Amino acid sequence: VLHEDGIHPHISELAAYLRRIPEGEEVGTTLASVSGMIQRMTKDGLLEITKDKRILLTSLGMSYAKNVVRRHRLSERLLVDLLGIPLERAESEAHSLEHGISEELLSKIEQKLNYPKTCPYGRPIYQASDKAIASSDSASIKLSEAIEGNQYKIIRIPDEDYPLLSFLVTNKILPGEMITVNERAIYRGVIDISHAASNLSLGMDVASRIRVGTIN
C-alpha cells in the first residue's frame, strides 16, 4: 500500500502505519519489533535500506508483496460482493480470511467474481501474472487538490483507518460516487463538497487520502 502511494518510509513511519492493522494480525508495532522484522526481511532479500534509512522492496519483495495484496483484496471482494459483509467490516475480516485460502481456491474466487479490477475501496487487484505493484494512478488526484466548482468521481478511499472508513461509508463517500467541490477553505483547513442531496466538510488531511478522477 505504501509503495502504491509512492511512499518509501523510515522505520518510525512504518511502525506508525502498522498500528492501523487489526490486533488479530499480531504485527509488532514498537520500533524494536519493526526493526527486527526489517532486519529479517532484509536478510531474506525482500527489503533493502537506502543511505537515508528509507525502506525499499527488492524485486523478490515486490513479487511477495504483490501476492499478499492480491490475496487480501480478492478476500475483500468475496466478503462484500458474495457474502454481503458491510464495507466497514470487510477490511478487518479479510485479514483473517486470506490466510486460509489456497492458491487454487483463490483462482476460483477470482473467476466467480468475474476477475475484478479493484478492491471495494478502489485499490487495484493484481493478476497472478503481474510482476510488480503499481504506483498511484496518474489519472487521479487527491481530493485535497481538487478545483472548486468541478465535479469528480471518487476513485479510492482509505481502508486502513477503521473509524474514518466507517464515517465515509455512512456518508456514502465511496468509489464510483460523484461529488462536487463547493469550496477549498484552506484557511479553515477543510474542503466542502456536495454529494447527492447532502453537503459535507472534510479536513484536508482526510481529503488528501481520497483519490478522485475528473469527469470529461
Q: State the CATH superfamily name of the largest domain.
A: Winged helix-like DNA-binding domain superfamily/Winged helix DNA-binding domain
Please write the CATH class name of the largest domain. Mainly Alpha
Q: What is the fold named in CATH at topology level of the largest domain? A: Arc Repressor Mutant, subunit A
Number of domains: 3
Helical/strand content category: alpha+beta
Q: Could you tell me the radius of gyration in angstroms?
A: 18 Å
> Which residue ranges are poorly predicted, with pLDDT under 50 across at least 5 consecutive positions?
none
User: Quick one: overall form?
Assistant: globular
Biggest beta sheet attributes: 6 strands, antiparallel
From the N-terminal CA to the C-terminal CA, the straight-line distance is 28 Å
Mean pLDDT: 85
Oligomer: single chain
Number of strands: 8
For the biggest β-sheet, the strand order reads: 3-8-4-5-6-7
CATH architecture grouping of the largest domain: Orthogonal Bundle
What order do the SSEs take from the amino end to the carboxyl end, as H and E? HHEEHHHEEHEEEHE
